[in-house]
Design brief:
The chain is an alpha/beta fold. The chain has nine helices and 21 strands. The two termini are about 35 Å apart. The structure holds S-adenosylmethionine.
């Protein structure tokens, strides 16, 4: 299997990536793309099935591009994710015998609290994989049931009247719904949607422009464009690992880099003396500050700006640095300032093992990777979140 959950075979010595084929299976296939160094294929006929294969009840799978490995049993999915991260770390770092410490799975479907959909030719749906054609959907097995009810409702509206909207974001937290639309919507649509929150074309047109969530006793405020983890149950697991870790060690001053709406920093703030968070998205920083006030937290400060620009400003005594960067990972300048700060430990939360491996290697002259845990936030996809613990040498 490759890192994207495709089967690998060789045809006349040319590496071929086969969508929907599992390790050990025998299939008839059709080449769908042929490049100089590799080809891509799809399965026409399964001749020998793997014991890891399951039927997946989604009519859109392999078309909408959302679920990549839904045809694997959940045990096989976890094994695949663990092996993928171990292989990447072994291949791209000096930790050649590296093994994952633990992987925390989540079996249930309907876990996502957020969905982004598009409307084209009055059809609501996901973009088809690698295109911007809309695949009309009425139900997604990954999203919260209340979001599915909203999708059905919008589809019923579209059968009768048009909506001149290109993109819709639907969020659902604790039964509360927030709909964000990129264009104005007519009043009868707003009245028809019932008791939800609606932001259209930048204006709050029904109730609020945020919804709230509780995590570890703190209330968090989530706007349509704030970063917020999509799987609540697993985020509690992920942050729980970080909290447990911080509780065990007597850390005083913590830097929370790429802090989003401050969820990690606020969750650990009661166990340390001071936390400083840095985040470039101003909506997220404003939510973070509101949460700080609302939860009466006095030992945390949020700085708005890019980590690479703001780190210089906060240089000082920090004994723990927590980083949770986007897929691109840390930039070289930030790595060198973190090394100058010389924290005792770095907790690195990552959603991309490739950039994580690169950064572990950039840090290795001063920091040793002691342990890595995986938390599966995204069942049926090839994505997995990791928490790595690095200690000063
Ligand atoms: C993976 S999210 C982590 C958010 C947060 N730790 C959480 O769990 O809710 C990455 C965050 O980094 C922010 N970001 C991306 N590039 C950044 C940069 N160069 N400097 C500061 N923040 C950045 C994004 O806006 C996003 O909120």
């Amino acid at each position: 299997m490759d890192d994207f959950g495709r089967g690998i075979c060789f045809i006349n010595d040319k590496i071929t990536f086969v969508e929907n084929a599992l390790e050990g299976e025998i299939v008839d296939l059709e080449i769908i793309a042929s490049k100089k160094k590799y080809q891509e294929a799809k399965v026409l006929n399964l001749k020998k099935e793997s014991k890891d294969r399951v039927e997946y009840a989604c009519p859109y799978s392999f078309n909408c591009g959302g679920c990549h490995i839904a045809h694997m049993t959940y045990e096989a999915q976890l094994k695949f994710k663990k092996r993928k991260v171990e292989n990447i770390v072994r291949r791209y770092t000096s930790y050649k015998d590296f093994s994952i410490h633990s992987i925390f799975g989540c079996r249930n479907l309907y876990y996502r609290n957020k969905i982004t959909l598009h409307i084209k030719k009055q059809q609501l749906g996901y973009y088809q994989k690698k295109t911007n054609q809309v695949i009309a959907i009425d139900h997604c097995l990954l999203v919260h049931p209340k979001i599915n009810r909203v999708i059905k409702k919008i589809n019923q509206y579209l059968k009768k009247k048009p909506l001149y909207v290109k993109e819709i974001v639907i969020r659902c937290i604790n039964e509360d719904l927030l709909l964000w639309m990129d264009q104005d919507v007519p009043q009868d649509f707003i009245d028809y949607m019932g008791n939800v929150n609606i932001v259209a074309n930048g204006k709050t047109v029904l109730n609020h422009n945020f919804i709230e969530d509780d995590l570890f006793g703190n209330t968090f405020l989530i706007k349509e464009n704030s970063f917020y983890q999509v799987n609540k149950k697993q985020v509690e697991k992920l942050y729980g690992l970080i909290i447990d870790y911080v509780k065990e060690e007597p850390y005083q001053n913590v830097l929370d880099l790429y802090c989003g709406t401050g969820t990690i920093g606020i969750s650990v703030s009661s166990y340390v003396k001071k936390v400083v968070g840095i985040e470039c998205n101003s909506a997220s920083v404003s939510s973070a500050n509101k949460k700080k006030k609302r939860n009466h937290i006095v030992n945390i400060e949020f700085i708005e700006g890019k980590v690479e620009d703001q780190l210089e400003r906060v240089k000082g005594r920090f004994d723990l640095v927590i980083v949770d960067p986007p897929r691109s990972g840390l930039d070289k300048h930030s790595v060198s300032i973190i090394k100058e700060i010389r924290p005792k430990a770095i907790v690195y939360v990552s959603c991309d093992p490739m950039t994580l491996a690169r950064d572990i290697e950039l840090l290795k002259d001063q920091y040793e990777l002691k342990k890595m845990d995986l938390v599966d936030m995204f069942k049926n996809t090839y994505h997995v979140e990791s928490v790595s613990y690095l200690f000063q040498k």
